[in-house]
Specification:
4Fe-4S cluster-containing protein YfhL, YfhL-like, Alpha-Beta Plaits, 85 residues, 4Fe4S_Fe_S_CS
Amino acid sequence: MALIITDECINCDVCEPECPNDAISQGDTIYYINPSKCTECVGHYETPQCVEVCPVDCIPLDPVHTESREQLQAKYEKLMAAKNK
């Protein structure tokens, strides 16, 4: 499943550069994770890098976008194929 940034976000800017899929961007008031690009770092790392660096623990799983590890892997492969074109 994709991740989501909650309103507890303090806009510290540390998560955005850590995302290998460029899924994180600045929203109107807090950072936003694009669920179509978020693979929870599957294919890149063992753990989601944004969660690792977040100082306020405001990046939980997004219950609206549930995906299995296999689906996340397939999304990763699709994103990498599009990036390499």
